[in-house]
Specification:
Layout: E1 4-7, E2 10-13, E3 18-23, E4 26-31, E5 41-44, E6 54-57, E7 61-65, E8 73-76, E9 78-80, E10 92-99, E11 105-107, E12 113-116, E13 129-139, E14 146-156
Parallel strand pairs: 7-14
Antiparallel strand pairs: 1-2, 3-4, 4-5, 6-9, 8-12, 10-13, 11-12, 13-14
Length: about 190
């Protein structure tokens, strides 16, 4: 490793004349055999917010029943940031930023837990509802770095609705033969 220091009389190029110790983001420089007033120089490397978060866990497609309770956790997303730990550069915050499910689902800003906000039961419809939400993970620095990912949530009918029999509007009756096989269509 080589390092240069500016001085009033010029520059010192200290290659192979010093010992470097690295302790995380702290470098300690100790000259060897060079007469100087101070024998140790400490160099602290400051982190920049140069990394965006990355999702390490996100389910792309989730299927849930339509009778799920309001406030239920349906999944948890996880993102990490490679910037210096325990700083705003690496602290992650989650948001739902778009999609057609923004009024039906929420996400814990700190936890990444995706929860239901509304009653999803679509009585008497038995069709599945499909929601596409956009989840954002961003660091807490200013300006922030972020990443977005799409998640599909399919809400299936839980089969908890009783059958409904509808009659023709003119209240006519169905006619069937006197002899009919069991389980046959009429």
């Amino acid at each position: 490793m080589s390092i240069q220091f500016g001085a009033a009389v010029g520059y010192w190029n200290l290659t192979n004349t010093a010992v470097f110790y690295k302790l995380k983001d702290l470098y300690i420089f100790q000259p060897i055999g060079i007469p100087v007033k101070f024998s140790t120089v400490i160099i602290v490397i400051e982190d920049e917010n140069d990394n965006s978060p990355n999702f390490t866990y996100i389910e792309k497609v989730i299927t849930i029943p339509d009778d799920i309770l309001i406030g239920s956790i349906i999944t948890t997303v996880v993102a990490t940031d490679m910037d210096k730990p325990n700083t705003n550069f690496s602290a992650i915050e989650y948001n739902i930023t778009g999609g057609n499910g923004t009024g039906y689902f929420d996400i814990g800003k700190e936890t990444g837990e995706v929860t239901t906000l509304e009653d999803l039961n679509r009585k008497p419809s038995n069709k599945s509802q499909i929601y596409d939400i956009i989840i954002q993970a961003q660091d807490k620095a200013f300006p922030f770095n972020s990443v977005h990912e799409s998640m599909i949530i399919i809400v299936d009918d839980a089969g908890n609705n009783p059958p409904v029999i509808t009659f023709p509007e003119d209240n006519s009756f169905l006619k069937m033969p006197e002899v009919c096989m069991i389980f046959s269509c009429i």
